[in-house]
Amino acid sequence: VIEQIDITQVNWARAQFALTAMYHWVFVPLTLGLSFLLAFFHSIYYKTGNEEWKRLTKFWMTLFGINFAIGVATGIILEFEFGTNWSNYSWMVGDIFGAPLAVEGIFAFFLEATFFAVMFFGWNRVSRGFHLFSTWMVAIGSNLSALWILVANGWMQYPVGQAFNPDTARFEMQNFWEVLFSPVAISKFTHTTVSGFELASLFVIGISSWYLLKQRHQLMAQRSIAVAAVFGLLASGAVILTGDEAAYTVAQKQPMKLAVMEGLYRGEEGAAIAVMGILNSEKEVGDDQDTFILGARIPGLLSFLANREFGSFVPGVDDLVLGNEEQGIAGADARIARGKKAIGYLKTYKDARKQGDVVQAEQALTEFNRYKDDIGYGYLNEPAQIVPPVALTFYAFHTMVFLGVLFALVFLLMLIYTKKGTLHVKKWLLRLGVACLPLAYIASEAGWIVAEVGRQPWAIQGLLPVSVANSNLTTGTVQTSFFIFLVLFTLLLVAEIKIMLAQIRIGPEEG
Amino acid sequence: MIGQLDWSTLQHIWWIIASLVGSLFLFLTFVQGGQTLLLTLAKDDDEKSLVVNSLGLKWEITFTTLVLFGGALFAAFPKFYATSFGGAYWVWMLILFTFVVQAVSYEYRRKPNNLLGTRAYDVFLFVNGSIGILLIGAAVGTFFTGSAFVLNDFNQVTWQTPTRGLEAALSLFNLSLGLFLVFLARTLGGMYFVNNIEHDKLVEKSRRSVLVNFLACLPFLLYVLVSLLVMEGFAINPETGEVFVQQGKYLANLLDVPVILVLLLAGLLLVVYGVLATSVLKKDHGIWFGGTGTVLTGLAIFFLAGFNNTPFYPSTADLQSSLSIANASSSHYTLTVMTYVAMAVPFVLAYIAYVWKLMNARKLSLEDVAADDKAY
After folding, report:
1. Residue B178 neighbours by CB under 8 Å, 6+ apart
2. What is the complex's ipTM, to 2 decimals?
């Protein structure tokens, strides 16, 4: 279909998308979680009428606003970037992918945008009740936005409810509910939003811990920690549960992603989970080298995670690339061959249609339908191309899991010492609280790396590799916009951090 | 009932919905117009503060409407989304950059330690209101003047000019449409200040600026209108689907579909009344006439481009690659689903209107700004 794939341009387009997505993701999780924390703080103020809680609410609201603005700024690019840099993708799957984006605009963005102004400026303009309502609407609106974009993302990882239409040369939606309630979409949405709750709780705890260490605003800091630690602990539990569910759906729908997350090359029954490890960088698909230079593994656990059964078989990278007859897994070369046939018959069909040859068109279509499920593989040339970057995915995954466990512990300790009333003298824990703030961002970005790097080379799993999803642009064009984004977003990020730090130093208005 | 609608009807409904969102956006560009007035109209810090805080309550609605416009086009006409954004790369990128810098400017401009200084953020707001709107106008102009692209059998776009969309700004027609929108936005911005701000001197200046900016937009409007009446347009043969060039196509559309003519005339008259009400009759409600007029005019422009067998995104390089609402749309199934979803739009408009009414119940005064620690 595509005569020439300019792989350098594709990689720059990927770099640009990764850059904008990762910058956007710096700001989104805080919005998702802090909006709910604001709603909690505001509700307590509403119930108690205590001015101290109002000051507390307003302080966190100021930080929320600073973060929100740059979140909006980085978000608009992403929506349009599907068109600008991935125009073939936009055409091929726009019939399915566009709908959740439009629904997001109608249902979620306007909630956020409309009630955000009321939340910020409504203190003296609307009734107390309506003001509180608005704060809740901002929280619900932001999290609804996340729902729809993650439904869209979930669909890319597990493309359900669609069929290929050879006449329009695109995938078309067959069932909206299948897209919305796809298991991948649901586990992605729940895992992502609750991880945002966790990050926001750590944000509040980190800054409050700093105040306690500096012995400033102690009442506000202790109250903030109390609410955030409860929210964070609940979120932690949910992150672990939904993470387990997410891993299960990955195992079922994207076995290659699971294999690289775990560095599993040779599939096995009773597969072991890697607690930690250093990968052997010399390791190639199908060779006899050890995967790990160093590592600790627990047998059986990966099988349980993947299939809910300790003795079950989990395919490794080798099985998926080279095939495993015993387990009934087709090798990538067979799928590539089938995919090339699908592409060939599609072209024959198109040409026959153009020439009005009904019989040939009919025949080509029948053949096409036999092979179309592997059409995406037809754009690849080497079986090993189906392997995502192993090291990046593996380390990102393990960093995320390790930090996730640490955070759960921190929330628990914060809560215990808050109850005992001795938190302010536990300097070590407060320092740990401050340290967790940047770590939360690292864990969060690592999660996205697992999700997005781990599904390479696919834009749409199995159907469309990124190398044919892009726009027809020159490398220079994409490089130019990449560097403009890099400079612009970095500048805005630095401004954001400086402003944020200044506001934290100033602290809440003294009453 | 929606389930029974045929594909073509749904395509028309979605062109109307997309046009409505686009036209509402044009009305809401009073925010962008107001931003450009920040540098020219507001002289001292008090006036600047009033202008920014008045717009600060509304900029997100405008921004979100633009995002929804993009989302609606993606969902309903994905081939346009893929062709235009992937093709006219630089014009869209530049537009986006101006909105990126806008989004942070309200929040950051007066905050201590903001790296770039207040002045820089005010310039960002000006750039968004001037270059941003100008380029949007130029991009919409290509609905009539066409762009140089070719689609292959698999609907992949090849853009024929190395400037990737920036060439749109070189056409006198597109440029005029852009400048018309810039000055219209400034006109609307002034109307909004008169409606929303309590400050005698600033309001008086705003009333004058409404008239001045409206007069400034007139020559560009006239050029656009006259060109539309006489220019070569793009037409589709309904029998064969073939696209061809037709002299006076847009004039023919006005005559064939009188509703468009009515929308256009009513829209322009309402804008004129809004201007007179604000600057001559010294009324405060001009924005509602100017705004409604802008929406109607916008609808007329979009309908002129897309209805009556007209390809709304014509290709000058290969006529048969031109996009119409029939060949660029989503599948019948998707449009049906989306139409159910769109039933929520009146509800969304209702709560936006309700909140607007609440927040604008009292005019914004210097005391309000001073009393609000969240002020921009």
Report:
1. B133, B134, B135, B136, B137, B138, B141, B169
2. 0.91
Backbone angles phi, psi at B245, to 5 degrees: -85, 130
Note the pTM of the prediction, 2 decimals: 0.94
DSSP state of A511: -
Q: What is the pLDDT of residues A198-212, one digit of tens each?
A: 999 999 999 999 999
Residue of chain B whose alpha carbon sits nearest to that of A105: B68
For residues B18 and B73, the answer to whether their CB atoms sit within 8 Å is: yes
Residues of A in contact with B100 (CB under 8 A): 73-74, 76-77, 488, 492
Which residues on A lie below 8 Å from B155 (Cβ)? 91, 168-170
Residue B43, SS3? coil
* A510: confidence class by pLDDT, cuts 50, 70, 90: low
User: Closest-CA residue in chain A for B71?
Assistant: A102
Q: What is the pLDDT of residues A157-205, one digit of tens each?
A: 999 999 999 988 899 999 999 999 999 999 999 999 999 999 999 999 9
Q: B38-45: which pairs have CB atoms within 8 A and are 24 or more residues apart?
A: B38/B122, B38/B125, B38/B126, B39/B122, B39/B123, B39/B126, B40/B209, B41/B190, B41/B202, B41/B205, B41/B206, B41/B209, B42/B202
Helix (H, G, I), strand (E, B) or coil at A214: helix
Q: Which residues of B touch A134 (CB under 8 A)?
A: 355
- Mean pLDDT for all residues in chain A: 93
A17-46 burial, b for 16+ CB within 10 Å, e for fewer?
A: bebbbbbbbbbbbbbbbbbbbbbbbbebbb
A146 vs A192: CA distance, rounded Å:
8
B153, closest residue in chain A (CA to CA): A350
Confidence category of residue A2, pLDDT binned at 50, 70, 90: very low
Q: What is the distance in angstroms between the Cα of B14 and the nearest Cα belonging to chain A?
A: 12
Does the bond joining B258 to the residue before it have cis omega, within 30 degrees of 0? no
Q: Rounded CA gap, A239 and B275, in Å?
A: 56
Of B74, B84, B107, the CB nearest to A102: B74
How far is A422 from A418, CA to CA, in rounded Å? 6
Residue B359 in contact with partner chain A when CB distance is under 8 A = yes
Taking the mean position of all CA atoms in its chain, how far away is CA B45? 30
Q: Which residues contact A418 (CB under 8 A, 6 or more apart)?
A: A222, A225, A226, A229
Residues B275-330 have pLDDT tens digits of: 999 999 999 999 999 999 999 999 999 999 999 999 999 999 999 999 999 999 99
Best of B24, B333, B340 to disrupt the A interface (most A CBs within 10 Å) is B333
CA pair distance B231, B225, nearest whole angstrom:
10
For chain B, positions 55-74, list CB contacts with chain A under 8 A. Answer: 56-58, 60-61, 63-64, 66-68, 70-72, 74
CB pairs under 8 A between A and B: 265
Which residue of chain B comes nearest to A20, CA vs CA? B100
Positive or negative: CA dihedral B299, B300, B305, B309: positive
Q: What is the chain B residue with the closest CA to A490?
A: B115
CB B52 within 8 A of CB B38: yes
Q: A169 to chain B, minimum CA–CA distance in Å?
A: 6
C-alpha span between B147 and A180 (Å, rounded): 37
φ/ψ bin of B150: left (φ > 0), alpha (ψ from -120 to 50), beta (otherwise): beta
Give the model's pLDDT for residue A119.
94
CA distances (Å), A287 to each of A258, A282, A308, in order?
20, 10, 29
Contacts B338 to A, Cβ<8 Å: 99, 102
